[in-house]
Amino acid sequence: MSKLSFNQGTPQFVPLSTYRAYPPEEMAQRAKAFYQELSRRKTIREFSSTPVSREIIEQCLLAAGTAPSGANHQPWHFAVVADPALKHKIRIEAEIEEREFYERRAPQEWKDALAPLGTDSNKPFLEDAPYLIAIFGQKSTLMDDGTAVKNYYVPESVSIATGFLIAALHHAGLATLTHTPSPMGFLNQLLGRPDNEKPYILLVVGHPATHCMVPNIRKKPLEQIASFL
Ligand code: IYR
């Protein structure tokens, strides 16, 4: 018996009414078009400060919230930061961790792996971009009566929702950077999130800067990422 109001306590089933079937040719065309659309997505690190309306972000978050999750517990929270003072504080804290990473913590092998991306500890995008979305996973869901309900497959669920969010933002014409200053505990404190939540990703969202440059890197071809058995 689930305590969570969005899951019915006793099994209740309704007819699947949202599924759409397509003729084979249309399926093939849709699959190709979707791949082509996603293949245009590039992670960027140079953002413009051009504003983006909150309604667009809200729609994309609704898309993220449709992701499958362990027992449908939807163990995520998206903290959307637009306030310049708060973005400034996040940048200060993130750059402290990043300097530690690049100057001390990162082994040479890791730094070598990052070299093609041209990253360093300087993170101006954390202030330039109109939105930072801090994505938290909830180890448990806190009920109104103070009890906690355990969540399952939290990293998997949060990662799938994040993928949906990145795809939705791209589809809407926005660019993203999946930023992971490590450790990210400072986000709980700055954004007032409780201890049952762990920050997974800080998603930087906005339009690319004029003349934005990206690393010349490629995705693996099908035969390197898939096998048919
Ligand atoms: N968090 C650091 C380092 C970094 C690590 C990986 I793995 C990347 O794909 C990119 C960067 C940074 O943001 O610079």
TrEMBL record:
Molecular function via GO: oxidoreductase activity
Domain Nitroreductase: 39-207
Signal peptide, first to last residue: none
Annotated InterPro entries: Nitroreductase, Nitroreductase-like, Nitroreductase/BluB
Keyword Oxidoreductase: yes
UniProt KW keywords: Flavoprotein, FMN, Oxidoreductase
Keyword Oxidoreductase included in the entry's annotation: yes
Name of the protein this chain belongs to: Nitroreductase family protein
